[in-house]
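Q: Given only this backbone (430 positions), what sequence would you predict?
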């Protein structure tokens, strides 16, 4: 990791970080567009060609869909300890998102006017669950459970098969626990296109959610003119703000945890003490030697790992708001004093006993979060992504009269005579 004074970091790296992932490389966009348009025109024929080319398996309509027997078999292939972990995570995710749903609807009455908001689920959702180096059952839970809580009737998932035409059993168990209706053995941009446009085998959905590699993310962006998506997502990001009271061993463990996700992960520590900065770096160097993803960690930390020496915590918060990280850890004596000063972050972890790993898996909050600076304008995945709200109005004649003159004036300012007449007609009747 690079240890820098804050001024040097701002001069050399801040601008690049703020503008990170602003667009996809042209070859990626070209490939994604070709795949999407081919599947849009040719359906299953194109889909199975791309499954053969990119997923490296030969499937047909009978093998594409995961069967009930495959799901049942998955439970026998993983330990009871893993099943329990999935169930605990499911329960906490459900409870957190149920609170969100309960707060979407409201009504109010004031002097003859009833106003309110009702919430209704969208009809169908498609979830992408990445394959690659490891399975990610947690992503299935994070995407499917809020949709299920919202009341979405049709939830499908796509995930890449292995060379034996199988899905990892942890994915199947997680999908079953989360209430996914159907799982398909397909990954990459071809999975996104199939869920966006529909084929003979895979139904089109109203919204596509879930993380993926650059091709998946680019495909989601491309099809977003036809189907709703969650938000653009890239490699994981972590900013930690710490003072001299922080445990440098805990800080190092969280940095390593985020760096092991991806060679392009971004990990930044902002700290007041150069002494603690050096202790953290030494701890990281020592502990990474024994980790299974050492090469990925080293790539991440060499490219996008920074330890920044700041003058005070106010400067640290300001710099973090400029970066708008996916995850923000605040390891200070009084972390809540900084909470209200945070403007841009996907999720915040307060205190040194709140590691990001809890949010990734079991605490109940959602780990599908905006990256690439999108935390400036996007929230993490929530019930709102699977529901639409509808306002309602019920006005008495007396209350109509109180607003009649101003409504007529506004209508006439915009040259909309019929709007004005709709008020005047009711006034005459009264």
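A: Predicted residues:
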């Amino acid at each position: 990791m690079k240890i820098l004074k804050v001024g040097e970091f701002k001069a050399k790296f801040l601008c690049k970080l703020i503008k990170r992932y602003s667009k996809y490389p042209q070859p990626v966009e070209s490939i994604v567009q070709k795949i999407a348009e081919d599947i849009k025109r040719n359906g299953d024929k194109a889909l199975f060609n791309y499954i053969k080319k990119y997923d490296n398996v030969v499937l047909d309509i009978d093998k594409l869909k995961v069967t009930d027997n495959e799901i049942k078999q998955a439970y026998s292939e993983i330990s009871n300890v893993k099943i329990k972990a999935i169930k605990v995570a499911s329960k906490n995710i459900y409870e957190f998102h149920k609170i969100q749903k309960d707060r979407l609807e409201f009504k109010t009455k004031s002097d003859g006017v009833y106003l309110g908001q009702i919430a209704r689920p969208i009809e169908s959702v498609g979830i992408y669950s990445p394959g690659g180096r490891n399975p990610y059952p947690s992503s299935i839970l994070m995407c499917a459970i809020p949709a299920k809580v919202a009341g979405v009737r049709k939830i499908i998932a796509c995930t890449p098969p292995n060379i034996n035409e199988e899905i990892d059993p942890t994915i199947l168990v997680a999908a079953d626990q989360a209430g996914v209706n159907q799982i398909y053995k397909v990954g990459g941009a071809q999975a996104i296109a199939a869920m966006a446009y529909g084929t003979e085998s895979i139904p089109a959905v109203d919204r596509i959610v879930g993380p993926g590699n650059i091709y998946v993310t680019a495909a989601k962006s491309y099809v977003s003119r036809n189907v709703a998506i969650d938000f653009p997502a890239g490699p994981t990001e972590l900013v930690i703000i710490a003072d001299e009271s922080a445990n440098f061993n805990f800080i190092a463990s969280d940095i390593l945890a985020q760096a092991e996700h991806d060679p392009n992960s971004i990990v930044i520590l902002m700290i007041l003490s150069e002494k603690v900065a050096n202790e953290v770096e030494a701890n990281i160097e020592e502990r990474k030697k024994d980790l299974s993803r050492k090469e990925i960690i080293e790539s991440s930390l060499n490219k996008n790992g920074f330890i920044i020496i700041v003058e005070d915590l106010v400067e640290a918060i300001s710099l973090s708001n400029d970066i708008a990280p996916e995850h923000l850890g605040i390891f200070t004596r009084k972390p809540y004093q900084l909470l209200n000063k945070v403007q841009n972050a996907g999720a915040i972890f307060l205190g040194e006993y709140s590691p990001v790993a809890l949010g990734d898996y079991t605490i109940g909050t959602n780990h599908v979060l905006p990256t690439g600076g999108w935390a400036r304008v996007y929230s993490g995945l929530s019930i709102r992504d699977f529901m639409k709200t509808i306002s309602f109005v019920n006005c008495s004649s007396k209350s109509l009269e109180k607003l009649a003159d101003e409504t007529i004036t506004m209508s006439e300012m915009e040259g909309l005579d019929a709007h004005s007449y709709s008020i005047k007609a009711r006034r005459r009747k009264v």
